[in-house]
Every structure is written in C-alpha cells, then in structure tokens.
Specification:
This protein is of the alpha/beta class and 248 residues long. The protein is built from 11 helices and 10 strands.
C-alpha cells in the first residue's frame, strides 16, 4: 500500500517486498501457488517515508512532459526550489541522439520501413527543447553521472567507467543514478555505512524496518518501475506527481 501525504509519503509493506512487487500484476490462476500463505511465513515489514526533494526523470519524461518538468522547477519555498531535477548523463545522451533525428542505419532492418519521418521530426524538436531546458542555468536542475557526481557543466555526456560497473542498459544506469543519490543522502545524514537506505529505526524482530527516501524516480517505463520498486526507490509518473504536489 502506498499513501502520499502533502509533503510526506509513507509506503508500508507487510510481506516479502521482492515477491509482492514481482508478482503484483500476475493473476493467481496463472501463478499456481498460494502466495499469501508462502509470504505470511516469511513476512518482512517495511515502511518507507518519502519526502521528495530530488527527482530523477527518464528520457521520455523530457519528450512527453517538458512543460510539467518546467513547472516543477518553478516551485519554490521562499527563494529556494522545493524540488531539484537530477538529470542522469545517460538521459542527456539519449536526448542528443533524438535531437539529431533517427538514422535508418541505426534501426533493425524490420523497423526501417516503419519509421515515420514526421514523427521523427517532432521528437527531434522536442528533444532539442528538452536539451536547452536541461542545460539552462536553472538552480533547480543538476546533471550527474551514474555514480552520483554532480557536474559543473552539462556539455559532456560520455561516461568512461560505466562499462566497469556492467551497466549495459540505459535503464539500469538511470536506476544506478537513483541509488547513488540515496547513498549520498546517507552520508548527508551522517550514516556513511548504510547502503542505499536511510534507517529511521532499527529493525528488531517483529518490528517494521523504517526507511526514508528523498529521491523519486519519474518514469512510465514498466520494467524500470519494477526494478526501482525492488530496490526501494519510490516511483511516480509525472502527471501523478504533479497532482500530488499540487502543481497540475
């Protein structure tokens, strides 16, 4: 169950998070097991308090929801932005590719005939506008590497060490960026030894494990959402976040 409140959101899980998330949308008739009974025997209670500050949008967010992202960066408390868009380098790289337009030579042979020149042109224009926005001197926008290093310039979009981390898929790099931000948040809260999570209370036997998150992934990609939830990274679609934040 996920409940979002004004500036604070709490996610509660009273069963095995990995199994629930992976099989949430699979009808019981197709699974063939009594998952409720299995999960009850190995229940893990986790509560996640979400106080969004850093938002990580994927590439499609910039193409489909650029006006909404611009509205998010304009939300302020006094003179300070309420939210900061943390733009992964891989997203900038993808936007650059889209801005150049699709090249039929880069597509599988079966897909070349389906390329719509008008659609490609529209996406290219959207990508150009998104790049201009992402690279603007906006205090509510930061560009960063997969390892969470914030860049002083957004003109460089190539990471030389991502292959060492065996991150071959761009979605995995976006998720890795989110997890790096979570680790940075741990250090900011004087908990350098904790990996990926901020503990609000120790998890004693029979007691829920309480976590805090300030990082939210913005995406509509189903596979990326499943991966993020499996790593306890809060996920929202842009329209849903806009409605929750009162910006829509």
């Amino acid at each position: 169950m996920v409940t979002w409140h004004s500036r604070c959101a709490v996610t509660s899980r009273h069963c095995s998070p990995r199994c629930v998330r992976l099989f949430h949308d699979v009808p019981c008739a197709y699974v063939g097991f009594d998952w409720k009974a299995i999960l009850k025997k190995s229940s893990v209670s986790v509560e996640i308090e979400v106080r969004p500050r850093q938002l990580v949008p994927d590439t499609n967010c910039f193409i489909d929801y650029l006006p909404q992202l611009q509205s998010i960066t304009k939300a302020t408390s006094g003179a300070q932005p309420i939210y900061t868009l943390m733009v992964p380098l891989v997203v900038l790289n993808e936007l650059e590719g889209l801005a150049r337009g699709a090249d039929a030579r880069d597509c599988p042979p079966a897909s070349r005939a389906t390329l719509d020149p008008e659609h490609v042109a529209r996406v290219a224009e959207s990508a150009k506008a998104a790049l201009a926005f992402a690279r603007s001197r906006n205090p509510a926008i930061r560009c960063l590497t997969t390892r969470g290093t914030v860049l002083t310039s957004s003109t460089f979009t190539v990471e030389e060490d991502v292959d060492k981390d065996k991150l071959t898929r761009n979605d995995d790099r976006i998720l890795a960026t989110c997890l790096s931000l979570c680790r940075t948040g741990n250090k900011d809260h004087n908990n350098p030894g904790l990996q990926n999570l901020i503990y609000l209370a120790s998890a004693e036997e029979g007691q829920p494990r309480r976590l805090r998150r300030e990082v939210v992934l913005l995406t509509e990609d189903r596979n990326l959402r499943v991966k993020a939830l499996a790593r306890d990274v809060p996920v929202r679609e842009v329209p849903d976040f806009m409605e929750w934040a009162g910006l829509g």
